[in-house]
Amino acid sequence: MADHTNTLGAYLRARRELVTPDRVGLPRFGVRRVPGLRREEVAMLAGISADYYLRLERGRDRNPSVQVLESIARVLQLDETGTAHLLALGAGQGREARRDPGEERVPAGIRGLLGSLGLPAFLEGRSFDVLAANPLAAALSPRLATGHNRLRDLFLDPAERSLYPDWEAATAGMVAGFRHAAGTNTDDPRRTALVDELSRASDRFRLLWARHDVQAREGASVTLDHPQVGELTLHREKLGVGGTAGQLLVVYHADQGGDSAEKLRLLASRGAGPRTREQAEPADRGAPASE
Predict the structure, then answer these.
(1) 3-state secondary structure of 133
(2) In what helix (H) or strand (E) does residue 81 lie, and over which residues does it extend?
(3) Which residues pair with 223 in a beta bridge?
(4) Model confidence over 97-115: pLDDT tens digits?
(5) Which CATH number fits the domain 7-92, given the four candidates 1.10.357.20, 1.10.260.40, 3.40.50.720, 3.40.50.410?
(6) How far is it between the farthest Cα atoms of the chain?
């Protein structure tokens, strides 16, 4: 089971264990019992007392100042996104539990847009559920369909895993994005249930979740190994949807004139989602994109 209490302390501890002494200019003496920095080393480098830092990690101080957290962030070598996450956790320590945000709904305008777009696109919910998708999205992956969850499929569905040549990088980015999307809201029942399920079912997820990496849910390039057209590289844009909490419109597109654009057009012309690798005919496996 994942621990949903003392989120600030859990984040500090996880990030501290990832920073080795040599990265902050400290010499190594004797046998170290911790994989990264000791608590007293973080405190010293941040200019605070070891006792105060201990209280922060153990959740005994719930009102740390911005200055203290920024000093700790520098010691832990957090980037801008990680620092913002740390500040949000520190500010949210004393808040009362939030209410269930309720069922997510698909705006009518977004549903119409998905139907008219000539590109693979779907609506991603705050817990990475696929809330709506167009047929071109299903042509990329049958899991890009209403009712599926992007996180669960990437970790637990072998067919989805096979789409990603660099599955380890894909899973690391997905978990870091999920952590960032959750922010300080640890009381969302949907997210809590999903984290607990994947923590039990996947060693890889459990390892990544324990790192507490955070990464903004931004667009990026993604390479897929498709069972019908082979490898293609697409740009994946993530656009915020006005009037919704945490929903993103995800759109895939390729560089015009390139091989991936031709393969995307080929998938669109076939008008259906791909078969599994076992179902694909030999002619499909190596078929050129210009057929």
Answers:
(1) strand
(2) helix 80-92
(3) 233
(4) 455 556 788 999 999 999 9
(5) 1.10.260.40
(6) 69
